[in-house]
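User: Reviewer 2 asked us to show a designed sequence for the structure in our supplementary figure. I'm pasting the structure tokens here. Could you produce the per-position amino acids so we can include them in the response letter?
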């Protein structure tokens, strides 16, 4: 399929400062990743640190925070990793949270389900 890049909006968790950014969609990445400079520009401050295993097998410590994100006509607040990266990466937590997926034939984002909270309506317990 090659590389898929999409435009999206990212900003502070309260949405007070936002910016349109080009993201590389990385369906192998759990979290969305942004660089420290972009995080600082948008007022996205680290909340905690986590250990991550990168695609090349290295283990690193990185900052984790929350950011407002909008793709297509869907938006929400999602976890983001703040670390050096050649470009912002859009990970599956954000995609799944927004009910979006990549169409492998077109290389574009599309809807994977109706938008809104998915709730299991079954019986709890035995």
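Assistant: Here is a per-position design you can include in the supplement:
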């Amino acid at each position: 399929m090659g590389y898929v890049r999409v435009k999206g909006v990212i900003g502070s968790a309260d949405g007070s400062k936002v910016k349109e950014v080009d993201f590389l969609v990385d369906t192998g990445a759990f979290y969305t990743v942004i660089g420290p400079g972009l995080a600082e520009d948008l007022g996205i401050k680290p909340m905690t640190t986590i250990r991550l295993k990168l695609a090349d097998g290295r283990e690193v410590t990185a900052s984790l925070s929350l950011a407002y994100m909008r793709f297509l006509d869907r938006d929400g607040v999602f976890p983001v990793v703040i670390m050096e990266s050649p470009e912002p990466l859009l990970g599956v937590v954000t995609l799944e949270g927004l009910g979006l997926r990549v169409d492998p034939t077109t290389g574009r984002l599309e809807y994977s389900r109706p938008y809104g909270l998915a709730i299991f309506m079954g019986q709890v317990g035995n």
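For the response letter, you might also mention the following. The first strand starts at residue 5 and ends at 11. The chain has two helices and nine strands.
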